[in-house]
Amino acid sequence: MMKKSGKVVLHKSPLPEGVRVGNVMRIRGVVPDNAGRFFVNLLCSEGPEAEYALHFNPRLDKSEVVFNTMEQGRWGREERGQGIPFQRGQPFDVLIITTEDGFKAVVGDSEYYHFRHRIPPANVRLLEVGGDLQLDSVKVF
């Protein structure tokens, strides 16, 4: 397990071809009873200077889900979904679907949020998942 700015990275999937329209990333797991926050990041490279094309950050401690990017070491403007579709002690199934103009987050059976691309998805090279969660599986298709 790798530490990243104080957060434990539980899974990394290299994406050498980037992501294209129609690509889906599926993350399944369980939110622990004492969960604070977890994250799904789509990164443009490895290492501390990496740009984030997507930072998907459910914050159970604040009952919100934040979406953002990081470019040139700076976080962009945070966007928030409506409510929080995760519950402590419950399993979850998240799909991140690459669309023409953004990443669509689907939680369970419901479309949750559409985050417009700020960085071209073709620049993505790595998917990482971590934080306060029990991870069951990560698939990219």
What does it look like?
With 141 residues, the chain is an all-beta fold. It has a single domain, classed as Jelly Rolls (Sandwich), CATH 2.60.120. Helices cover 0% and strands 55% of the residues. The chain contains no helices and 13 strands. Strands 1, 2, 4, 5, 6, 7, 8 and 12 form an 8-stranded antiparallel beta sheet that branches. A hairpin with a 2-residue loop joins β1 and β2. The chain is globular. Keywords: Lectin, Repeat. This is Galectin. Galectin that binds lactose and a related range of sugars. May be involved in the assembly of adherens junctions.
CATH topology label: Jelly Rolls
Label the structural class: mainly beta
Work out the helix count: 0
User: What is the N-to-C order of secondary-structure elements (H for helix, E for strand)?
Assistant: EEEEEEEEEEEEE
Beta-strand percentage? over 45%
Tell the overall outline.
globular
Number of domains: 1
Relative helix content: under 10%
**Level-1 CATH class name:** Mainly Beta
Radius of gyration: 14 Å
Mean pLDDT reading: 95
Query: What characterizes the major β-sheet?
Result: 8 strands, antiparallel
The strand count comes to 13
Protein name: Galectin
InterPro entries: ConA-like_dom_sf (IPR013320), Galectin-like (IPR044156), Galectin_CRD (IPR001079)
Keywords: Lectin, Repeat
Organism: Equus asinus (Donkey)
